[in-house]
Amino acid sequence: MATVDLKRLAKELNLAVSTVSRALRDSYEISAETKQRVFELARKLNYVPNPYASSLRKHKSKTIAVVIPEIANNFFALAINGIESIAQEKGYHVLIYLTHEQYARELSISRHLQSGRVDGLLVSLSGETNNYDHLQELKQTGVPIVFFDRICESLNSARVITNDFESGMKAADHLIERGCRRIAYLSISHNLSIANKRMDGYIRAHEKHGLPFDPKLVLQCSANDNDGNYKAILNLLKKKNRPDGIFASVEKLAILSYQACDELKLRIPEDVKVLGFSNLETAAWLNPSLTTITQPAFEIGKEAAALLFKTIEKKSMNFSEEKLVLNSTLIVRNSTK
């Protein structure tokens, strides 16, 4: 008689093996109707779980993975410190994977992690990512996923973010109150919710102050082409009706703005005021010091890790709807005086 295993049950029910496995474990992720179908066939075929395989599934690697787009951005370095602080308390190792802002790299890492080498995953999306099937597939294997900062709105998973809309509005408010009337918004990627929400706040500030929104002042930069971004900022600042303020959605675009102003002999803040999202400790030491929207990066990493371990330790509970929003801070320095 042929052995009745998960693969046979899955084939006869036309379901994925992972779905059958979760149904037999009475997972909340599987509907009552599907569970009933699985249980009925298992009884009919006298399915007996393989205790050895079951023990392997219960074995923990004591390792979590963190997938981030880059390490040069000080935000991610601080977030990793926050993640590590919780992982060490739990006795876990942390594997860091860099996508270098590339969707293909993120896809490859996700497929690699389907082997079960980690107990959970923390993700901040690449700037190129606009398809999330790879993360859905990984989640279906039973790996808990928590997003932080750069999140996927369409995937039902826990996330830790900052108040990007309000921060974007606060940043534009500040520039307008300092006399700017033509504010350029430098976006890192139209795929990322953080960039879009910050831009929404920027637009709302214009409406609040009765200023027209000029889409020509929105510069869609590339997530991984610094040379191209630098040239685009230069061209924007060379225009006759150039911006008198720059709002950079990420810190590397703020630094490129400084470099472009220096090349064109534009004075900051007299000719152009510059503000950026940044966690750079050196922001206060730039010449002039950079006004920033500073995110609580360490706390974001810490809270995201705490939420992931709660999911790992209490798998019978559903934490996919959990959403934690932390507040960023406007720190005014000389670049907007």
Automatic annotation (TrEMBL):
Annotated ranges, domain HTH lacI-type: 4-58
Keyword Isomerase in annotation: no
Protein origin, superkingdom: Bacteria
Keywords from the UniProt entry: DNA-binding, Transcription, Transcription regulation
Cross-referenced CDD domains: HTH_LacI, PBP1_LacI_sugar_binding-like
Pfam family, one: Peripla_BP_3
Molecular function terms, GO-annotated: DNA-binding transcription factor activity; transcription cis-regulatory region binding
Matching InterPro entries: HTH_LacI, LacI/GalR-like_sensor, Lambda_DNA-bd_dom_sf, Peripla_BP_I
PANTHER family xref list: HTH-TYPE TRANSCRIPTIONAL REGULATOR GALS, LACI-RELATED TRANSCRIPTIONAL REPRESSOR
This protein's name: LacI family transcriptional regulator
Species annotation: Pseudobacter ginsenosidimutans
